[in-house]
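Run: sequence + magnesium ion -> complex structure.
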Amino acid sequence: MTVDSTPSSPLSTHAQEIAPAKSVRPPHFLEQLVQKDIDQKNINKLVTRFPPEPNGYLHIGHAKSICLNFGLAETFGGVCHLRFDDTNPAKEDQEYIDAIIRDVKWLGYQWDGEIRFASSYFEQLHDWAVHLIEQGNAYVCHLTADEAREYRGTLTEPGKNSPFRDRSIDENVIEFSKMRAGEYDEGACVLRAKIDMASPNINMRDPIMYRIRKQSHHQTGDKWCIYPNYDFAHGQEDAIEGITHSICTLEFADHRPLYEWFSSHLPVPHTPKQYEFGRLSLNYTVTSKRKLKQLVDEGHVDGWDDPRMPTIAGLRRRGVSASAIRKFCDMIGVAKSDGTVDVAMLDHAIRDDLDKNAPRAMCVLAPLKVVLTNYPEDKTETMVAPGHPNRDDLGERKLPFSREIYIDQDDFREEANKKYKRLVIAKRVRLRNAYVIEADSCIKDAEGNIIEVHARIIEGTLGHNPEDGIKPKGVIQWVDVKQHATFDVTLYERLFTEESPDAGDKSFVDYMNPDSRKLKQQCVGEIGLSNASAGTTYQFEREGYFCRDEKAETLSFNRTISLRDTFVG
Ligand code: ATP
Ligand code: MG
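>> structure
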């Protein structure tokens, strides 16, 4: 699918807003479900949560979950918690916590109360583990990892009971306290729930609740050397926080019976319910933290916020706005099945947002000097151009104009056929926001490259057609030679050339686009761009959308997206 959002499409006059306009689509299944729970008074107030594991930066898939959880809370007058699911200190880091907080805030969402951490419930989770042991519902198991795998069975064969399954409650209490006290090495034993080794659902075959990890934790330091597994922790965290709708992705559907088993076997203060929705996958894109981390660690990209990364930080640095991401998430809907969304839909949402909101500017990526021979040498005029064709609130631009200007090398030919609507010798073109000019001659270097064009302005053509009736063929952008900004521009294309780079056993790094990044140096733009702020994305007329790179030491712009889809995969 190719979505074409031309810059000339009708423009809205709405002010930039982070929240997308109230959605006009019909309610999706989770909205219907919450509505029903409210109507039937099953809940007093909706409480959702976004529970990232701080083991990487958030990506576009997480944005969908954020928009869903925070969006439901907004729609139904409820609240959403931000909770770090920090049960695996080996892979977690404060850098990720900080980045996640920044990204959620930047997307325009506010969590209810303090930021929450699964690790602050460790004591309670531990007590509940002891409770299960005391009820005969959990045991310490010393099978090795290999043995445990063998005992677990397969999808078609039931598992076998562990030889440690029937040890006494007292013995289990002592063994678990020894685990906690650090008396065992990592991997020596685990705490398991005693459920059913013959269950057709492998998740119910005495799943692991606690593992030994002799690792310092970013929140709890060295207090613990046993850490709860996701399945044991997550539902209980939801219960502690009074989450009414625990929404997760589809791969957790098979974990739901376990989620319910724990809450029905524990004296939890509240019984949350788990619902699943389809994960967001995008073609030409990898959306797995583990794989994105590999791209970073192996140096295939310049970090998590490389503008080519599908991370929130990468998209932001590339110049994508929070409202474009929110609109995209709203647009793709929420389904009960997994599906791959065409990345062209994301591009469309980005272009649509920028078309409406991006201030306009003129820039020339490959400058060619034009001398306007009939224009006085010491004269400078100031042309005035709108900040945006349909947005008075974006003000006006003042454009100095004098005898020497730059145009793009692609916008001049000595000769050309009629299809070429730019500057040609003895032909006319309009300079955007300024005069009509006509080219007379050009100067070449020793290799025959055109290095300068001589042209004339046609008098009386500011805002008017030439009086002699010979109209210009097209409109091109220009930049004043005396007063302009000079900068580098980086053009980005998709990171992968393959539609599904990580499907099956494919090694996604083999499908990286070698041309995903192109640096253009010594570009010039209108003088106002010298003060561009990193948070503003401009439409460089006829070139695309660009935003100032927040990290570069010199003035430098990243291309957010081209004006139209030109990618050939
Ligand atoms: P990854 O697979 O990228 O490592 P994850 O599921 O392990 O992601 P978490 O930090 O556990 O990452 O995710 C936090 C929340 O975001 C979870 O509720 C998860 O279901 C949701 N989420 C993660 N990836 C996606 C996705 N592609 N689409 C929708 N929701 C997602
Ligand atoms: Mg996860």
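>> summary
The chain has twelve helices and 29 strands. Residues 481 and 507 are 49 Å apart (CA to CA).
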